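for the recovery benchmark. tokens below, seq after
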């Protein structure tokens, strides 16, 4: 049976990456308690690239726990890890 380990949210910010500025919300942090899931996203969450993320068909994204190590190694190397695993 599937188990929800964490609900993570984050807001977009601009970062320097490969010589340019990127608007991203890749960094998400775990929240406690309930969060409202709306038509476009979860309360407290945002997306940096609305053409490819968020919206009515992508308001919530679910990762299986095995994907975290893959993305931690490949997403913005040298910066803080974007995903946090919790077991609450």
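predicted aa per position
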């Amino acid at each position: 049976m599937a188990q929800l380990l964490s609900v993570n949210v984050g807001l977009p910010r601009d970062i320097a990456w490969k010589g340019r500025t990127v608007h991203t919300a890749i960094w998400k942090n775990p929240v406690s308690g309930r969060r409202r899931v709306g038509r476009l996203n979860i309360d407290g969450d945002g997306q940096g690239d609305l053409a490819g993320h968020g919206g009515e068909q992508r308001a919530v994204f679910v990762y299986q726990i095995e994907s975290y190590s893959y993305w931690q190694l490949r997403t913005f190397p040298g910066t803080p890890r974007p995903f946090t695993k919790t077991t609450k």
